[in-house]
Amino acid sequence: MNKKILTITIPCYNSQDYMKKCVDHALLGGELVEILIVDDGSTDDTAKIADAYAEKYPTIVKAIHKENGGHGDAVNTGIAHATGVYFKVVDSDDWLDKEAYKQVLKVLKKLVEDEKDLDVLLSNYIYDKVERRKKRVMRYHGALPEKRIISWEDSRIRFNKFQYVLMHSVIYRTQLLKDCGLQLPKHTFYVDNLYIFEPMIHVKKLMYLNVDLYHYYIGREGQSVNEKTMMKRIDQQMLVNRTLIQFFSENRKELPPQMYRFLFQYLDMMMCVASSICVVSKDKELYKKKKELWKYLKDTDAELYKELRTTLFGITFNLHGPTGRWFARTGYRLFQKLFGFN
């Protein structure tokens, strides 16, 4: 089979210290995969490392060099250059599990050979937090039937509030990403949320494979999901949230019920993330930004505002006064301890 089954795009910016582990694990897919190392204007030896891999594995690895445009723009570049039937993003400080990777490729290869239609494959990811010995795994057991192609009309789709889907969970059909016209904004963090949200309304067929594929490394200094970093970049998170609100408001009335529920819960979680960072900061300016975000939601779609304002997250992070914020911060710390994020 000459056709590449899977394109793996690895966005890199000054990743010289850790990208080799990511690339080496991706290379375990052999000739079934295409690996695009997208050097996003790095100033260290990232470009040299990428070129060395491309020279050593010319039928598998391509090094793409571009001006700095941020993580989302590197993903856009990967989509534009991808030739594999399916597409996955792996961040340069993360990596794929060897055995789970084999199983995923086996399933994807079989689907291609049998000419089966599949728009997105979901698998598990591991919160690989540095100081945490027992790693938490995000699984979707009970949310979807396993190893079956289903549609959004299937009543067995039942994601709970805490089965959070990230970029790390999904493998999209490449042509779907190209056809839907996804363009992630430049120089903006947290656009991986848009990567889940916007293409998903074009998904007709989906499957869940219950394997722990993706190691999501948490703990590197300066990482975008570091709590202090998120506080500094709160305006970018707010921009992403407003984009999600606008997109969902424009499309929600035409969505199948199960897709509506999935995207609603996703938006609920994103409102929680943005609000919790503001509350945890103990910064009055960030408290103000939180209020502005909820006002934007209300002004954009009053009906949607009522729905989100009365969820567990909506109530918790809109409690008034010092006591209310203390309660919200305590809840945040509890979930942080349980789930191992940030």
Quick structural overview:
This is Glycosyltransferase. With 342 residues, the chain is an alpha/beta fold. It has two domains: 6-218, Alpha-Beta Complex (Spore Coat Polysaccharide Biosynthesis Protein SpsA, Chain A); 227-339.
List keywords for this structure.
342 residues, alpha/beta, Spore Coat Polysaccharide Biosynthesis Protein SpsA, Chain A, ten-stranded mixed beta sheet, 13 helices, 46% helix, globular, glycosyltransferase
CATH C-level label of the largest domain: Alpha Beta
Give the biggest beta sheet. Answer: 10 strands, mixed
Which of globular, elongated, flat, extended, rod-shaped describes the shape? globular
Question: Spans with pLDDT under 50 lasting ≥5 residues?
Answer: none
Secondary-structure element order, N to C: EHEHEHEEHEEEEHHEHHHHHHH
Counting DSSP E segments of at least 2 residues, the number of strands comes to 10
Mean pLDDT: 93
Question: Helix fraction?
Answer: 40-55%
Count of domain modules: 2
What does the radius of gyration come to? Answer: 20 Å
Q: What's the helix and strand layout?
A:
Layout: E1 6-12, H1 19-26, E2 33-40, H2 46-56, E3 61-66, H3 71-81, E4 86-89, E5 95-96, H4 98-113, E6 120-129, E7 136-138, E8 150-151, E9 170-173, H5 174-179, H6 192-200, E10 205-218, H7 227-232, H8 234-251, H9 257-281, H10 284-300, H11 302-309, H12 312-316, H13 321-339
Parallel strand pairs: 1-2, 1-4, 2-3, 6-10
Antiparallel strand pairs: 4-9, 5-10, 6-7, 6-9, 8-10
Helix pairs in contact: 6-8, 8-9, 8-10, 9-10, 10-11
